[in-house]
Design a protein that fits this description.
alpha/beta; Purple Acid Phosphatase, chain A, domain 2; 6-stranded mixed β-sheet; 6 helices; 16 strands
Length: 291
Amino acid sequence: MPDRSRTGIRRGLAVVGGALVGLLLGLGGAAAPASFRFAILGDRTGEAQPGVYEQVWKEVAGENPAFVVGVGDTIQGMNDRSAEEEWRQIGRVLAPFRRFPLYLAAGNHDIWSPASERLFQRYAAHPPHYSFDYGQAHFTILDNSRSDQLPDRELVFLEADLKAHAGQPLKIIVSHRPSWLVDVALGNPNFPLHQVARQYGVRYVIAGHIHQMLRLELEGVTYISMASSGGHLRLSEAYRDGWFFGHALVAVDGGSAGFEIREAGPPHGHGRITKLTDWGMTGLAARDRKQ
């Protein structure tokens, strides 16, 4: 696939006649700043809860990020006949926020068939895997929408992409499913994604799918499972266990990144703000579990 490092950051989502199309924001050849902020959204669907995604987007817009990354499950999907209308509906939801470039990973509710893959490419304005640069940060978006494991073709794409952008000091991988979760939780570094990430100096690997806020560390790589941005909460539904609605706001300064985990405000949350390091593999760290 073509290298998107020059044009990727200018491509977002816009609404034209109710449909989403790729948007070139006219940034021209201006260099991206060394310091900037971007937002990360969790899943919208998997039994979307009314009004949550819209509220999270309003809160994100108030922070004025340079762009927004979504970890997938943007539509409920699973039905080829109704999928296009769902993409049109989400286009209407996103219309007030069209000034923010949006980079979506493909979730299992977004792609489940050849027809749904074509719709994703049309309305998300990206293939299922792609990459882009902003300033000194490089983002690789992988596609594991149809497999719990990361397919071999994605590993091939990942290694070629990271090799081509080896000079970028901050590298971030995004996919929908946390196919790395069991290996990282067990402290096992002997799986292909981690080995490639380590080889090319990836700092963060981010996913959604389970709707739970978790942070795990393995050999200098930080693995993040994002909280929900609209999909239903599971199990205890307790904030301390990582079950809440919200998003992440990331401040990049050169080759470093600082994460704030921002819970949605009322009526869908309490507006609590934590650092990424406050979270672990079972939710909040022990010292903070009274929250």
